[in-house]
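Quick one before lunch.
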Amino acid sequence: MPAAQSARASATKTDDTLLREVVEGLSQVHKQLPSKYFYDSAGSRYFDEICQLEEYYPYRTELAMLPGIADDLSHLIRDQRDVVEFGAGSLVKIRLLLQHLPQIKRLLPIDIAGDHLREAAAELRREFEHLEIVPIVADFTRQVELPDRNKVKKLGFFPGSTIGNFTPLQAVAFLDRARRSLGAGALLLIGVDTKKAPEILHRAYNDKLGVTAKFNRNILTHINREAGGDFDEDKFDHYAFYNPTQGRIEMHLISREQQVVTVEDYQFAFSKGENIHTENSHKYTPEEFLTLAAEAGWRGVRKWLDDEELFCVHLLQA
Ligand code: AVI
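Model of the N,N-dimethyl-L-histidine complex:
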């Protein structure tokens, strides 16, 4: 199974950050966990499986759009010679761009999962012999120093609608940091999931095989391993719904019973039916997204929508 584009905003950290963020999240009146902790190796595999599901339209829709977009891009990009992929993962989607963009001389893929990134880069090198590939192991949600900023113009690439996993405020902050990292004259190609019939969204996050449920529950096992927790996955139900007021899918874990969970020296009491909010996945109309991007100093150059308007890819200019 091809590995999907990674959403490893900031994957496993064995330092105190995970414990601190978990304790902070579970101490809130409305308990929550950062969705970046979905992506340990099991979680990344579940996400790859989700991307192959019939119900999960975002991955396959964007993937099918990319060759045509890349063809258009070859006429739209001017003197950009570097491509920078944020949260590069397995470098599946970037291939489709590179095949149509011979003017690109260097690829700078950014991902926190160093080993995985280096392996994917080595494989890509065999396919694109004339392309320089410089993997950058970093948390792309922070400011990343890129080589030759302002000297070699850059095309940023952020597929998969991972932008939707940020709140709108965080999304503006990310887009602003990305603009500064990419430097003068940059372009950004970004995939954004659109607003659509709630039933389609509901199906995408409540698949029949229950892969999304496993993906959601796995965050607890990840926390057990990394932060000394004793969560029992079987005591939590997956619950995902579209919240039309916020324009987002929300994923939650619902406690099946009254229970107390220990994470290192901390204890957290759950009543039966109490929830942990684990993920938001914001959906934007093309216009809403362009307004958001404008707040971060980007203007829209072109957008591509599939026939059913399930997914939108925007080309932005700094
Ligand atoms: C990575 N991200 C864009 C996915 C999404 O759709 O928000 C993560 C995901 N969550 C449940 N299914 C997929």
